[in-house]
Amino acid sequence: MTRVYNFSAGPAALPLEVLQQAQAEMLDWRGTGCSVMEVSHRGKEFEACNAEAEQDLRDLLNIPPHYKVLFLQGGASMQWSQILFNLCRDNAHGDFILTGEWTQRAVAEAKRLLPLWGGSVNIVASSEDKNFSYIPPESSWKRREDAAFMHICTNETIQGLEYGFVPQALGNVPLVADMSSHILSRPVDVSRYGLIYAGAQKNIGPAGVTIVIVREDLLGKARSDCPRMFDYQLMADNHSLLNTPPTFGIYLAGLVFQWLKRQGGLAVMEQRNIEKARLLYDYLDQSSFYYSPVNRADRSRMNVPFRIHDESLNEAFLKQSAAAGLVALKGHKAVGGMRASIYNAMPLAGVQALIAFMKEFEQSHG
Amino acid sequence: MTRVYNFSAGPAALPLEVLQQAQAEMLDWRGTGCSVMEVSHRGKEFEACNAEAEQDLRDLLNIPPHYKVLFLQGGASMQWSQILFNLCRDNAHGDFILTGEWTQRAVAEAKRLLPLWGGSVNIVASSEDKNFSYIPPESSWKRREDAAFMHICTNETIQGLEYGFVPQALGNVPLVADMSSHILSRPVDVSRYGLIYAGAQKNIGPAGVTIVIVREDLLGKARSDCPRMFDYQLMADNHSLLNTPPTFGIYLAGLVFQWLKRQGGLAVMEQRNIEKARLLYDYLDQSSFYYSPVNRADRSRMNVPFRIHDESLNEAFLKQSAAAGLVALKGHKAVGGMRASIYNAMPLAGVQALIAFMKEFEQSHG
């Protein structure tokens, strides 16, 4: 077996220990004589697995009891619609902060649906003027007091931006956050949010599970034309088992939660993630060969886009890094250059190996 | 390792060979140095995996080229809404044949949504009068010529009913079929259907993947308020990769498709399934201790509900069968008694072991 250092933005690397456990119990899970994929979601074994995963996530994020935890399907992209069907009756307005590709897509769906229902989209602030290289300062935001929600993406995977603060919505407007690409990388004060959502395939588990953490008072308000499987209230009432859930994905996410607990929890992970990110950004900042296109204060600890001043070297960089066992470093086509995604599962040694390679590459091409 | 004979209705048993392959390549898939869960869905390895899975499914079911194959999320339950958002503009009518729990639930969703859009639900026929123990004869059906679709469930998992014929919709009304619990168990003339859908967790792969096979002329007709991720046309245009798909589930379904091809394809599987089902039903029919509650002509080859005349013995039966390594035989609460689900992955030896146990149990309790 030759494992590589995998810098994929998602689906992304998983902790080796987790994969080894899944491998070991693939044919006989918890003494059932079956794979976890083969047991009923209504049986006591899977119900326990589901409940443990929820409890471990609650422990890790210190989720208050008046928040529901849902394991859903469809990815964060499905949530862009699902949130609207759950939080917006007719004539509802949605506040959005535009900071990159993912918020652009969320806005596009709201701009399509809300006007059909007599509502509208309000762009509170945007950093599109500078190619989404910064988080607009909160002092410039134009919030609506009557918004049904205010939506942010706390970490833009493609642009590599991360919020260093929790914004304040006006009055009782619930703050809705897409945390797909940095959830579980640091402690979060969940009580500041009305709803948090995240696709699993970056820092949680395999693609096909979406986590929604939602304050109870936001439940039970779905539109009458809300698809039944979209209704957060129904899902909450059924502990996410309204219909057959993605059992293997929930199981594997549960193994990741247990792994995080063994590491010492999110405060420990945050320290590791700060160290990994600092190492890489410090190296970029002292280099005259590479650079980071992102405003320093807003740089993501998880997704680190970087460029070579001489773009003609990109292809050689990607080819040689892959050959050296450092894979999936190509930047998203919307940004170009390179991107290293260094989620929880990326060990410090992986970042060190990347920097060592970058130095070598600079020496031979600089 | 002690593997059991697993009669779960779903998530259900998977072929042992498939699990063993998934286990063997869990840490290094196709030489990537990563698990299949850890690679980008946009990378060439996963795109090839996705395309192979689609082609193998096309080969197995002999799907005509003017049908699209989609790998979606959310289960068959999500399709109850998704079909409506895709096929029903305002004032649309849906035809349904009621044959059990699953069609009841599909009807409930249509009865909720269609009237909001000025449309209605038409129950073409129902076997509710006899506890869903038969398929209503086609001669009694009251179809609408102006229906947006006619919906059937070709195998009712809970009641254990299976269509032995392909019904005829009127005029150009597309026939929509939920085949979740018997897809791939027999050849199907796909060209008779407008849309076929199936949750994976019975005869395809792990929960979390839904297959939709849809005739091209039914695409591009989604309602304006259709959630973006629901739009079949968009999914088809993107080969199901509009957003991150459930990569592990598609991979595993692909392994099942390859396994089916190695067995000789669906004609061979049908012969095996006929043999397994005949063995079990013949035994039930000659017994004065057990019985099948289902009309003979309409009995499912996949899901075999059965009862003991003396219901007080149910608990002992379930306890002792489980102890003998024959698990998940409890009937659904809507029907009671027992149910043996004998999908493709259940070998003949498993059915023989069940019958041997049933004989023994009858001898000691009869």
SSE arrangement:
Two copies of one chain form a homodimer.
Chain A: E1 5-6, H1 16-24, H2 44-61, E2 67-72, H3 75-87, E3 93-98, H4 101-113, E4 120-126, E5 149-153, E6 155-156, E7 161-162, E8 175-178, E9 195-199, E10 210-215, H5 232-237, H6 247-263, H7 266-286, E11 290-291, E12 303-308, H8 314-323, E13 326-327, E14 338-341, H9 348-365
Parallel strand pairs in A: 1-13, 3-4, 3-5, 5-8, 8-9
Antiparallel strand pairs in A: 2-10, 6-7, 9-10, 11-12, 12-14
Helix pairs in contact in A: 1-6, 2-6, 3-4, 7-9
Spell the H/E element sequence of chain A.
EHHEHEHEEEEEEEHHHEEHEEH
Look at the structure and give the CATH class of the largest domain in chain A.
Answer: Alpha Beta
Tell me the Rg of chain A in angstroms: 21 Å
**Which ranges of chain A are low-confidence, i.e. pLDDT below 50, for 5 or more consecutive residues?**
none
What average pLDDT do the residues of chain A reach? 97
Q: Give the name of the CATH superfamily of the largest domain in chain A.
A: Type I PLP-dependent aspartate aminotransferase-like (Major domain)
Query: Strand-residue fraction of chain A?
Result: 15-25%
Task: Output the strand order for the largest sheet of chain A.
Answer: 2-10-9-8-5-3-4
Total helices of chain A: the number is: 9
Shape of chain A: globular
Which features characterize this protein?
alpha/beta, three-stranded antiparallel sheet, about 375 residues, Aspartate Aminotransferase, domain 1, globular, homodimer, 2 domains, about 35% helix, Aspartate Aminotransferase, domain 2, seven-stranded mixed sheet, 9 helices
